[in-house]
Fold these 4 entries.
Entry 1:
Amino acid sequence: MDTPWWQELWRRHAHITTPLRERGLACDIEFGLSTYIVRVSLPDDSYLIIGPPQEPSSDRPPGDPEGWIATREHPDDQALFEVVYDSAPSDGPGAPQRPEARHGGSAQPLIEAIDHRLAQLGLLPLASSPTGNPHTLPATPTHHAPKAPDIPDTAGRASVYVYALRAPTDQLNGAESHAAAAALLHQILEPTDGLLAQLGEFFEAAGEKAKEAEEDDGFDLSYDLADAAAEIRNLAEVLHVAEDRMRALTPLVPAPRLPSTPARPPSLPPRALPSAQPRHTR
């Protein structure tokens, strides 16, 4: 889905989904019992549910609760249920509070607790930073793709590269002006260091590498890769004025604000975003 509602919903939860996606974890946003939650798929087929307390419902806006509760569950093993983090306030004056309650709705302690537990379980696809703090995207788009950290396993490296390619799309979905969208186009179309230019060089280099085999199939593959490089460069030439055209467009109309407590069920069905669409599965 690509509606103002979902874009705003993703924006409100970016402080949770972004650091988790940087660790190679796929995130979806679903509607729980009374408000929206983040569902995080884990490598062992279990999952995390991250959200505010569902009962009683709160009038706070999505993504800004009084406290977070993160639980780990498994669809085929009902015995697997654990509370990873709980900073929600206690229900009554005499009820015991977990130590996390002092953090309230802060996201950083939540992410650090998830990091710690998943590292214990061996369920972090990517290593976190040495300090244990969550990685963050730059606040404004840059002209260069983020450098992928050194990851020992092939699957981990692939996750980093997919994220690096997906990040501009996510930023574009949340762009609040055509000027910001144009800056992201520059990141892709810049003729020297843009993503398309780098992809062209990559396929050209791959073609040269294929030739080193000195076999018929190696030469055939090198021709195919050279054709791909040429097509990518041609695409960059066709779109070379797209950045200026985007910047000249009429300013975007601000999306309506989400209500704190919907008077009726949301118009969109309360289901997970389709994981097959890279713009919504993080």
Entry 2:
Amino acid sequence: MEENTSKPELFGKFLAEKSSAAQLNQLFDYFGNADQEELERLIRAEFKKDTQDLSETDQPRLDLIYSNLTKQLFAKPESKLLKVLRSEIVKIAAAILVFFSIGLMIFKFLNPTHNVVPGAAIATLSFNGAKAKLGAVKKGVIYAQGGIQIIKKADGSIVYMTVNADATTASKLNTLETPNGGEYRITLGDGSVVMLNAGSKLIFPMDFRGPERKVYVEGEAFFNVTKNPEKPFIVAIGGSEIKVLGTQFNVSSYPENEGTEATLLEGSIQFSNTSGKVVLIPNQQVIAGYSTLNVRNVSAEDFSAWTKGEFLFNDTPLAVVMQKLARWYDVEVDLTVLPQKNLYMKISRRADIDEVLGNISKATGLEFNLKANKIVLEE
């Protein structure tokens, strides 16, 4: 339990339907280990003003609430918590129903109408005529042939290793693809690390031969490129090319972007397309449209926050925010009903979507909910 959040405060928020997912977890952890005397004081303090006698018509509904609570909230049927609540549950449930309308909230929590979870390390790797769903593969060697080894590490990432690979094998293209609700990290044959965001694709050879190292990206990816002045690293994305020697940068070509974006954290890159070419320095971003090539100064960390498990929205249009959430949580959103608002917010990518939508609702003054796997703006 968080040190700054008291038990009565957690219990009060639960009754007032204001608990976050994290606070609910804290409260139920406390319930399972609570001292009997302490628990009784907590219950009586919250309900001493509101407890009423139970009417006969309320009994079936309260029995159902009690049954759901005992089955789903607590692992041991005979826990000390249940022994305490067994004599108190009728009065407590009655008070909840009468004074806090909490019955509906309990059923919503116990029987959620959606099964939406944050994204995770999920991807499909296509190589040498084979496919592997990486989220389901245990650590170890995925492929070993012709001097090429593909290894899945304990942290879930994959590494390409080459030892005297023949040219035919080395030149074969592989495809790493993440679905909506997925992300993945890969170490290429030259030691460069690529992290692929949700709904994205990386095409690359098993090993780099020839005068350059070239890969292809769709969606969004973060690169930490191994330095090799003799062999430039080339990223082809959205009709543009990025040439680097060794650096860290983020690229994105999602539909909600103004164009293909490249944002430089360190080192330097040369960005080119049919409109021309520019060289970026750290904390600069280039946006390439159909016939434009614009450079602006930015905080590059904002555009790589996703690699550290965060959404960082800095004056970001609400429509863009919702598209990013929809892709990460693999849900739908109707962009046509969204007003023109910009958002300033930092949100964990591991947070429950209800908590995220609640924070956005508070920040914008709009009411967002999830219904049938779709983010809905309430009237």
Entry 3:
Amino acid sequence: MLPISPQILAALPSVIRRPTRAEWSTDGGLTWNPCGVSGGSLTADRTAETRYQASAVLTDVGMSRDEIQTVSTQVRIWQGVVIPRTSVEWIPAGRYTVTSAEALRTGGVAVELDGLEDELRQAEFPIARVVGPDSARFLTERLISEALPGEAVAWRPGVPADTTIPAVFSDGDRWDVLSSSPTGSGAGGIAQALGAELFFDARGIPTMAPIPTLGNPVVWRIGQGVGGVLVEPATQQTSDGLYNIVAATGDSGAGTEAIGPVVVWDDDPNSLTYAGPDPVNDPLAPQRLNMPWVRMRTMRYSSALLTSVGQAEEAARALLADSLGVQSSLALTSICNPALEAGDVVEVEVAPGEWERHVVDSLSWDFGGTSMSCTTRTTSRRL
């Protein structure tokens, strides 16, 4: 969760004002110019390649070569929160590149905004090149700074930044080298090989973070009743993207010894997605033990960046954790907490007195609005 004072967090139901402000820049963020925001909304989705997307009407600024345009203009937005007897507290709500703009006859400029991942994807290598070998930290920071000069990468605890990445040939796609395939298939990139995810956070900082799991600390409790912030929950389930076995293989194709496959699986008998005691060496165990409900849903992941059994296992476990969490999802409407981030772990009161841990996959809210919509996921357990 983004920094927010404890008194503001505790008093979100009693917020009296939610002002919004913005700034724009045409020189890559060296200088910023203030402007107003009249309406708009944002969506933060950790399952999308561009985490932050927004639309807004910017005021006190025009469309021109030196103001709002779709070539080099960036926009930063803040959501303010005010409770009784306090001054406004400003919380970052995204740093964006302008993808479309329209001058309105009534004044202002209507813009569609994408996070800076969009600029990385467009900055393909002019010619094919070999990347590495070097540490994940060095290669990530170099590849990002080539496309976005001056941007420093934030490495969150738990990411093995000093892992050696072998030489890899790329036909031009910078984003594929840096990040990962959304489905876990294909070559994957540096982030996926580290069991991590790469994104630009609400402040526009390129961030390498571990895959969020339900074991992470709870940052916010979404409760019902008087003083609670939950407005409306709606439970749903899906099997899309659900795997309970991940097999990871490393093979550079350059004559080096192949790694794996390293296989990990859901080994919790209380889980609805239990894959059995050993689906690799004893696939008939569920039949022998009278477990007709056991099913195998396998993801095969291969990457030339996996150079050791330990690294392959770490990447496979991250993919497994990310998949198993989609067993049971919750679409909810709550009081708007602009400090909440996709990937945060929250506790939700799904029924009076019944609390569940959930990972926030996506959230959206209107600038200045009092409510927000979230889609979360948790792990279903067999009772």
Entry 4:
Amino acid sequence: MDIQNHYYGHSAALARHAGLDSVRHIDGLLQHGWTVRSPVTVHFADFPRLPRGARRLVWSHASRAWDPAQDTAETTAIGAPFLYLSAMTAERTIDPLGAAVAFPVHDTRVVKIGAEDSVLARELAERDGPSVVCLHPEDLDRPERLEVWREHGHRVVSAGERRDPLFLGRILRLVRGARRVVSNQLSTAVVYAAAEGTPTAVYGEGVEVGALGSEVARRTRELWPEFHAEDAGIDIRRALALDELGHPSLRDPRELSGLLGWDHRRARPALSYWFGTPVRKAGAVLGILERAEGAQDAGSGASPLVFLRHPLSHLPGRLPRVPQGEELLAEPLEPSL
């Protein structure tokens, strides 16, 4: 019912698994990234209540991040879209990149990260040599950030914009082909890589994330020490990553379609997507409407004017298409700047 359902090619991957030719409106909310606390308070905080029958669809009920039984709202675990795409492309071979791939923690239009690109760029060059650096689309708006990585000998690529249906396939291609995957904080891409059996590394002591400060870095080190220990084996990390991504909760195509509300056409999710949800989110941003209890918001305290600087990015748009053939493992994009 919200634009986040269609971030990063997630709904496109689920539609492909369900055997659909086109993406449909989801009757509920879909988790769009790995979280260090409950998705209810991180991703769904603007929606403390949902219409009857709509679901909060999360990746896993086995994550160390939270206890579903103690949560403030009921959730349904369906597994991460990444795992569905990985299974659909398991027999496809790709050429090894012969280099490490780094996914630096990224800024957003609302949340700013307290980290210097030059520090990670230098350490990456020293420890892994010239590497491939995948920048988030919102970091690509700043040419000076690209130059920092290139000055240290790294190749900069992108997985595309948030609503690009090929985004997830590009990430999968990168983590599957990487010699190892590196970040300056435990993050979604690192967990994806571990699930693929790719070696991973987390450099440094973590970064400060908006209003949450160093809490995210502290919590990741406390709850997931295996990803920070030098001697943790690949098999240990892979088993942990599969739990975090909800491998035991993966659904067959028919069951998944029912949980997403795709087993038959409904008007409500479409009306909510185009009209109800944008109004609800605007009310939450302006402080007129309440948010979920215990909301974990890195953008907390930001002026509503921050959202208005990029008004179109928060509005609904056409649903993404379903990738076909070679697009399932698309090549990463090369920034022109």
